[in-house]
Design goal:
The complex is a heterodimer of chains A (136) and B (130). With 136 residues, chain A is α/β, with parallel strands linked by helices. Chain A is 21% helix and 24% strand. Chain A has a 5-stranded parallel β-sheet. Chain A has a two-stranded antiparallel ribbon with strand order 4-5. Chain A is globular. With 130 residues, chain B is α/β, with parallel strands linked by helices. Chain B has a 5-stranded parallel β-sheet, with helices on both faces. The radius of gyration of chain B is 14 Å and the shape is globular. The chains are: A alpha/beta (136), B alpha/beta (130). Chains A and B meet through helix 1 and strand 7 of A and helix 3 and helix 5 of B.
Amino acid sequence: MSETIKNFLYLNRKAPYGTIYAWESLEVVLIGAAFDQDVSLAFVDDGVFQLTKSQNTSAVGMKNFSPTYAALGDYEVKKIFVEKESLEERGLSLDDLQHLTWEDEDEDWAEKDSIHLVNRAEMAAIMDDADVVFSF
Amino acid sequence: MKFAIQVNEGPYQHQAADSAYFFAKAALEKGHEIFRIFFYHDGVNNSTRLTTPPQDDRNVVERWAELAEQHDLDMVVCVAAAQRRGVADEGEAQRNGKDATNIHPRFRISGLGQLVEAAVQSDRLVVFGD
């Protein structure tokens, strides 16, 4: 659709069900995948809750959209950055998050981890490197 | 510079809609170009022509429409977000079996691809909202 390739960063800052930002952010990511840009996702602040495993929304009567994150690898989303400090401040660790992977076609479809833990300074550099930041 | 603007909040509830408007107006006055204004999340409510604020208050919807008229702006409302929140044009109303429309004619309903395209084509994407 376009020859221009930009570094797209989708910045997710909010918990998944209190507001609709998380879900509608994910919808942009899925649609945006058709544009063949260089895509990264970042999760900071309460946004880290979006990736937690074993989400159960039955009591709040909302759709549990968390299984969608596992499909991101199929949409060529291979870089998911999670801020370490945000996890720690909320008593979370990498073990509390879904194990998200992508398949590397150059290495016989080897499964590789999509999630990278980065500290706050590294996250700032990632934001600085992005051409476009979609902030949700 | 060529700007894309994303408005994520509804009118009156949140100043983001006002700030986005003033930013767009100032950018245009300085001779910059606005590739597209994209309304997402509750921002889609900026487009309903049924909005009727008290007479002594600003009319956010009309204000957008006038700016768009003056500068031939492309103002796009996300279809998925609009469907959730009951913002409809003729086509959407028919497709979804609804008995009314409410979108202001200066706005158009389209897909999220329009947001991504605007981000690709513009020098800066400026997002207004929480």
